[in-house]
Specification:
The chain has one domain. The chain has 206 residues and is mainly α. Helix 1 packs parallel to helix 4 (133-146), helix 2 (39-74) packs antiparallel against helix 3 and helix 3 packs antiparallel against helix 4 (133-146). The chain has helices spanning 2-33, 39-74, 81-130, 133-146, 161-174, 185-189, 192-195. It is rod-shaped, with a radius of gyration of 29 Å.
Length: 206
């Protein structure tokens, strides 16, 4: 009886060790498959989104500024306090929308990070059930290759539409005519600090 008990204990121990080895190897296979998803990768996702979105934002800003100047000129308000107020408001809206782009880029990176965590969690569950590190490792490679940020981001909508519909419309309705130093179109929509901004291309991961 003692011999049989020792044999059963040894067999159980060997089985537990085999299971643990399979789980350890499978975990390494999963982590290796997703090894490219580093903090630098997620930072690259955010940067790539900004690179795609900011030029669109600046283009919309210049077009909105041109529209402001055109409408002010038609109303004889080019040199008015209303024009200056609109210019200041438009720059404030630009700053707000720039921060919105940054926030959206962070959300893009966070979504990818959450997707990676979810995919890895499912793979670990698969490993627990199958205890087959080779099968799970292949699944991890396939999944990792299909995970990540999109290669092309959706174009921005009209980010200045609310500003134009509310603030701009109200300004025109007030029909202010107080003269002030001219607010010229280069200040509004041809600002070299905006139109001349170069947004360098960035690859995921750096």
């Amino acid at each position: 009886m003692c011999l049989g008990g020792s044999s059963n204990t040894a067999a159980l121990t060997a089985q537990q060790q085999q299971t643990q080895a399979a789980l350890t190897q499978g975990g390494q296979n999963i982590e290796n498959a997703f090894s490219s998803y580093t903090p630098a990768y997620y930072a690259g996702v955010q940067k790539n989104y900004e690179n795609a979105a900011l030029p669109q934002l600046f283009k919309q800003y210049r077009a909105t500024g041109a529209n402001v100047n055109y409408n002010m000129a038609n109303r004889g308000l080019t040199n008015s306090s209303a024009a200056q107020q609109l210019g200041s408001s438009l720059q404030g809206e630009l700053a707000s929308q720039e921060q919105g782009v940054v926030n959206a880029g962070q959300q893009q990176a966070q979504q990818v990070q959450q997707q990676v965590a979810s995919e890895k969690g499912q793979l670990y569950n698969q490993l627990d059930v199958t205890q087959n590190p080779t099968l799970v490792g292949q699944s991890a490679l396939n999944t990792a290759a299909q995970t990540g940020a999109p290669s092309v981001f959706q174009p921005l909508g009209n980010l200045f539409s609310n500003w134009s519909n509310i603030y701009l419309a109200n300004s025109f309705a007030n029909n202010a005519t107080t003269a002030n130093p001219a607010l010229t179109s280069p200040w509004l929509y041809n600002n070299p600090n905006i139109s001349g901004k170069a947004v360098a291309a960035s690859n995921y991961g750096g």
